[in-house]
Amino acid sequence: MQAIKVRNLSRQFGSVTAVDSLDLDISVGQVYGFLGPNGCGKSTTIRMLCGLLKPSAGEVNILGLSIPEQAEALKLKTGYMTQSYSLYRDLNVVENLNFMAEIYSLSGRNKRLRIEELITRYQLGDIRHQISGSLSGGQRQRLSLAAAVIHKPPLLLLDEPTSAVDPQSRRDFWESLFELVEQGTTILVSTHFMDEAERCHKLAILDRGKKVADDSPKNLMRDINAHVVEVHTDSVASAQDVLQCLPEIKGVTQLGLSLRVLVDRQVDQAEDFIRQTLTSHQLTAVATQVKANLEDVFVVATMSQPSGSR
Ligand SMILES: Nc1ncnc2c1ncn2[C@@H]1O[C@H](COP(=O)(O)OP(=O)(O)O)[C@@H](O)[C@H]1O
Ligand SMILES: [Mg+2]
Description:
Layout lengths: L1 E12 L2 E12 L3 E5 L6 H9 L6 E6 L2 E3 L3 H5 L2 E4 L11 H11 L4 H14 L15 H12 L6 E5 L7 H16 L3 E6 L2 H4 L4 E6 L2 E6 L1 H6 L3 E8 L2 H8 L5 E7 L2 E7 L5 H10 L5 E6 L3 H10 L7
Parallel strand pairs: 3-8, 3-9, 6-7, 7-8
Antiparallel strand pairs: 1-2, 1-4, 4-5, 9-10, 11-13, 11-14, 12-13
């Protein structure tokens, strides 16, 4: 079943096209990722999906509702969490949850039980009376997630929810997301972390407002339009200079003492091609083809746009 169906969605800000003819199909019960650098249109898209921002063009259907026309009804079915965590800094943990509960018309015993349940689940017990402005990044993140799911929404829209926390908190947060998915929640989450993107069931790579790839991480890595070759050489800098000028090379990244080189898929023997090229420049090298990772996919996907200047 479809949770989100988007066709031809665009948003202009003056002369800037923040989101450009986007199509999305997201199934119920998936963690669907938006991966892309700052400014590629992740937040603008999510804000349009929530109904907070009017599209310049396109159609959005979420959980059977037409957006922005039926945005009010959608609010009851979605939880939205942003990178800045929309908490009331002067209210303590319980007061924040109370406030959110009342927005969703929870009251009396139901409200108290739900809040206690969330306090236990998200380990907020010890800090329940602490002002939220004084919490650590990880604590604020847990409170923010608790607030976003207080009304048990079937859909969560999360905009870079882990950009301000340490690695352990990020891992814990993802555990919580999978727990919600097991209960049937659909989650759209934006990130610029490759390890997080790799955990999604499916993911869209966005580049300058356009979707440049859309599949499971596994399929994206399998179908990458390049050979990935690790190159060990004594003169890493010179080898990099030589390789990155070639039209057959889609990317060269230095990793410690080696280079990770993305070679056009049309090249037949990528390892030999690199070795011979370097030999002709009096450089000796050992070249080994390896499996693609998501970062490789990202580099190839974001460089193949016609307007790309990289
Ligand atoms: N309210 C706004 N007014 C003008 N430009 C905006 C506004 N919001 C976003 N943009 C522009 O739209 C583009 C996409 O931004 P955004 O969706 O925030 O990207 P991301 O969340 O991926 O970092 C950027 O070029 C940004 O400067
Ligand atoms: Mg953003």
